[in-house]
From TrEMBL:
Residues 310-348 are annotated as: Disordered. It comes from Clonostachys byssicola. The keyword Lipid biosynthesis does not apply. InterPro entries: CK1_Ser-Thr_kinase, Kinase-like_dom_sf, Prot_kinase_dom, Protein_kinase_ATP_BS, Ser/Thr_kinase_AS. This is non-specific serine/threonine protein kinase.
Length: 348
């Protein structure tokens, strides 16, 4: 955008770029009337497969739910489709990296409690997300800093008629939509996605956090299709017991349950929340919203202050820890990973 075009919707000024994804770029913005900071997502009107308008419509359908960013404005300015929405904090992938790529059991259970509720809400509104992954779960800022938000609904799809609740038909030979690393086995097999697939993907996300990685990461192949096939084969041949080795039984129970659901089954969200809440209590944890990054950031800041007091700060910077970077991270959309979405066009 040129200097003349740095305003959208008459009252939002575009600032610096803070993120980019498969389908657009995100900038920090300011409401010139109130001074409030917001996020602005831009997509070229010449995009081969424009989808920002669709995503904005999904956000409007989900409006009012806890952990669903509010869209302030959508429209076209010059050569760009623009969506103005809530500014959020770092993604769970950002925080996972900040915490040396391992989350504690307590942090995972605190997150799982919220994530199950977010997915349940999206499903209650007749949508499935179809790209459940750490990059698409974003912590809030300020007073909502402990709240997990769900973003990036460009691949979301209605799985039923909102009025009649008539479920979409079972189909096969579908392209892989979403992110291969976290995709359900049925998605790999080309089966139409439904609620069960979001739930299975969420299981892989929490295992990724607990284990530090998944067995099908880093597989090499000559083509994308061959890579997806190798990931599928590894997923299908890795026993649940192996995947959940060293973890409480609840994680194997969760994965086996989600994999056993039939195409049009409604998951028992309350049952799944309860098994993890019971585990949380059994482990003696406090529901105090003290996540790993809260502790880690405090420790790093304390070290930095101690170093500064001891005259060890370099170049006048007392805190060179990742805590500074995380506190400044405001990345409302995912960065494209190695195993990224296959298509954003398949909503049929």
């Amino acid at each position: 955008m040129s200097a003349m075009d740095l305003r959208v919707g008459n009252k939002y000024r575009i600032g610096r770029k803070i993120g980019s994804g498969s389908f657009g770029e995100v900038y920090i913005g300011t409401n010139i009337i109130s001074g409030e900071e917001i996020a602005i997502k831009l997509e070229s009107v010449k995009a081969r497969h424009p989808q920002l308008e669709y995503e904005a419509r999904v956000y409007k359908s989900l409006a009012g739910g806890v952990g669903i960013p509010f869209v302030r404005w959508y429209g076209t300015e010059g050569d760009y489709n623009c969506m103005v929405y809530d500014l959020l904090g770092p993604s769970l992938e950002d925080l996972f990296n900040f915490c040396n790529r391992k989350f504690s059991m307590k942090t995972c259970l605190l997150l799982m409690d919220q994530l199950l509720s977010r997915i349940e809400y999206i499903h209650a509104k007749s949508f499935i997300h179809r790209d459940v992954k750490p990059d698409n779960f974003i912590m809030g800022i300020g007073k909502r800093g402990n709240q997990v938000n769900v973003i990036d609904f460009g691949l979301a799809k209605k799985y039923r008629d909102p009025k009649t609740h008539f479920h979409i038909p079972y189909r096969e030979n579908k392209n892989l939509t979403g992110t291969a690393r976290y995709a359900s086995i049925n998605t790999h097999l080309g089966v139409e996605q439904a609620r069960r697939d979001d739930m299975e993907s969420l299981g892989y996300v929490v295992l990724y956090f607990l284990r530090g990685s998944l067995p099908w990461q880093g597989l090499k192949a000559a083509s994308k299709k061959q890579k997806y096939d190798r990931i599928m084969e590894k997923k299908m041949t890795t026993p649940t017991e192996t995947l959940c080795r060293g973890l409480p039984n609840e994680f194997a129970i969760y994965l086996n349950y989600t994999r056993s659901l039939r195409f049009d089954d409604k998951p028992d969200y309350s049952y799944l929340r309860k098994i993890f809440r019971d585990l949380f209590v059994r482990e003696g944890y406090q529901y105090d919203y003290v996540f790993d990054w809260t502790v880690y950031k405090y420790q790093k800041n304390a070290e930095a202050v101690a170093n500064a007091a001891g005259g060890k700060a370099k170049d006048g910077v007392a805190d060179g820890s990742p805590a500074v970077r995380v506190s400044r991270t405001r990345n409302p959309i995912p960065r494209t990973g190695r195993e990224t979405r296959e298509t954003g066009r398949d909503r049929t």
